[in-house]
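DM from R.C. (forwarded with permission)

"hey, sorry to bug you on a friday — could you get me a structure for this? deadline for the figure draft is monday and I only need the backbone to look sensible"
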Amino acid sequence: MLTQTGHSTGQKKPFKLEDIWRIRTRLEIEKNIKELALLNLAIDCKLRSCDLLRMKVRDISSGGVIHTRVIYRQSKTDRDVQFEITSRTAQSLSKWINEKVLTPADYIFPSPRKSGYPMSYSYYSSIIHRWARELGYDEYRYGTHSMRRTKATLIYVKTKNIRAVQLLLGHVKLDNTIRYLGVELEDALNISEDTDS
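My reply, with the result:
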């Protein structure tokens, strides 16, 4: 579906594993620790942007140590969801927190313009659009939800365990997870391609 300006709307595409590595490599070369920490945490946590952006340092760490597992209450469903923080993500978060001298009560990604506020949705979205552009993609096919879908999609492709993905995303109904990943159509197409007639 297209908007009046000709831009794609609807479900945003997840990034592929090689895309993530290309973005990571570029950010490491540029020494862009903020965006590296943002990329890594967004992929690990699989949270909606509203939850990711309102996270505070105390939600993911204590005593200066980043937790390997976090329980976080989602604002949309008011339900707890658990996620892991990989060592790569923990390392980038520690560097970012130390570089910005953030306290436990600070947002992990504070607004660059408004003191005491988190990074805005539009600012976060513009970062993801830029990443997509730099990969040579149509930036309007990607957005904040691409980050939520990326690891979930990679896990499903690797394991085909839809129940595990449902738990990781915090979905109440399995049907929501199936629709969210678009797995029925994708699997049906793959089966069709692999079937000789």
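R.C.: lifesaver. The two ends are 33 Å apart (CA to CA).
me: no worries. The mean pLDDT is 85.
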